[in-house]
Amino acid sequence: MAKKTTVSVVGCGLIGASWAALFLRAGHDVRAWDPDPQSLGGFRDRVATPLAQLEQIGASTAAQGVLHLSADLADALEGARLVQENAPENVPLKQDLYARIEALVAQDVIIASSTSAHPWSHLSVGMKHPDRLITAHPFNPPHLVPLVEIFGTDDAVVAWAEAFYSGIGSAPVTLKKEAVGHIANRLASALWREAVHIVAEGIADVDAVDKALVNGPGLRWSVLGAHMAYHLGGGAGGMAGYLDHLGASQEKRWASLGNPSLTPDVREKLVNGVMAEAAGRSIAELEAERDAALIALAKQRLKSD
Amino acid sequence: MAKKTTVSVVGCGLIGASWAALFLRAGHDVRAWDPDPQSLGGFRDRVATPLAQLEQIGASTAAQGVLHLSADLADALEGARLVQENAPENVPLKQDLYARIEALVAQDVIIASSTSAHPWSHLSVGMKHPDRLITAHPFNPPHLVPLVEIFGTDDAVVAWAEAFYSGIGSAPVTLKKEAVGHIANRLASALWREAVHIVAEGIADVDAVDKALVNGPGLRWSVLGAHMAYHLGGGAGGMAGYLDHLGASQEKRWASLGNPSLTPDVREKLVNGVMAEAAGRSIAELEAERDAALIALAKQRLKSD
């Protein structure tokens, strides 16, 4: 169990709730703030679901931290070592928020942005101490998917963040250079482009593509990375052998991949296809199924640790 | 438990061994043939490992089928309803094999090629009854990853194959139109292109990319397809809402994805990176770790069925 820390959660939507549940479950105290009284008012309820799911997994032996809600930013920042910012994806809004936070906290307080859309170099503009800012992007739903993608410019700040997120059971991955979409959303976008192409070209329907992914590469990528898969695909020669024998045909394959546009026709195929796959299940029901499956996997991971 | 069937396994390498284990474990009899006496001679041993792994999962209640090895093709085809062909990825060689098989079997015998590289339309050239040929591509390692990608031109043949592969615990996915790389390898290739780009550009190291995938999108894709993920990403509006609000930014993201070449410099980064990730573990050790993780997941799946 890591040292008990106080974390400010700034922005009380679903991502903020997921983060708060992870922090509390690991024994950290959380001080939450949102400019919208309604968001703030509903926060304790929104935290309850992910918290119950984490309890179902049974991960922590720490005494649960205390959740404090505050409509006053200064009060919400009191004693915090880390500020997890989950404001809307609006750069000026975030920059303004950082300025307000910087005016209220000590110099060693770290600000971590959950942003999926904006790079560090845009967000940090105008900060008094930009080195205290990191991007720390979780993957949805954050309390059930361990990945946190980190980028920052101060090695000590990044090292502290890596240790902190590891301590709450997450899997931090640090980028050497910032990139729009970090790693995971770039990979997801690249895969989806081809998945859309396959549907657009009439090779397979939406549900067939999803079934192939879930029962094939997706399953394998949950235990083995893409690079490592090609290392094993190279036989005794590993990655070097793979590249020697099949590098050229892989480049040929890349050249043959699709480059679809989201035309009205493609849009219709995707919407109808996903409705057929959902087979009457609502978004909430589909999310509950996803969460149940991820919870089962998290239990499994915990058991094999 | 499906009806007991006799399956000829033609080509006794690792893929053939994996198939044989699945067939035997489901209670089917297997008659195996390979032109190379050494391959044939070692086959019983090569089948033992996947068979033991399937027993570890505990999937079947059927009495295990009988494995018969034969150096005589006619004998190996005796009584078979399905021929699973796992010959080298060489079109003329496969075509020659199909001609020999067709001369020996009744008209209703189905030939299923495990090919990952060649489309049905190339393989079927010159066949007397091309409609009996399907491609049935497994995903490595076939006995631990359920996906089988099917393409054929005769609906009844395809329906029989879907039922048969479902019956052995696999997850058949049928393509409406053939495509080089079927679905899964096209998706894997698209993802890997971006994974290579991220390494080539110095955004993250090989092991960081793999860690991000395994703990992020890979984990989620093991329970939720890529199309369905965007449906859930659209909130209450689902896929339609997603495309309305974020379709344009997704197209912009696609335009920003990388298009790497496997230059000597990139090659060196990949080889060194994967060696660092392997951290001294041999290919065999890495495969054993992969298999252990996939076995744990298969047990988990079985439990939640």
What does this 3D model show about the protein?
- Two copies of one chain form a homodimer.
- The first copy, chain A, has helices at residues 14-25, 37-41, 43-57, 73-77, 91-102, 120-123, 155-167, 184-200, 206-215, 217-221, 226-233, 238-256, 264-278, 283-304, and strands spanning 6-10, 29-33, 67-70, 82-85, 110-113, 133-138, 147-152, 171-174.
- Chain A has an eight-stranded mixed β-sheet with strand order 3-2-1-4-5-6-7-8.
- The first copy, chain A, is 53% helix and 12% strand.
- Chain A has two domains: 6-174, 3-Layer(aba) Sandwich (Rossmann fold), CATH 3.40.50.720; 184-304, N-(1-d-carboxylethyl)-l-norvaline Dehydrogenase, domain 2, CATH 1.10.1040.
- In chain A, helix 1 (14-25) crosses helix 3, helix 3 (43-57) packs across helix 14 (283-304) and helix 11 packs across helix 12 (238-256).
- Chain A has 14 helices and eight strands.
- By secondary structure, chain A is an alpha/beta fold.
- In chain A, strand 7, helix 7 and strand 8 form a beta-alpha-beta unit.
- Chain A is globular, with a radius of gyration of 21 Å.
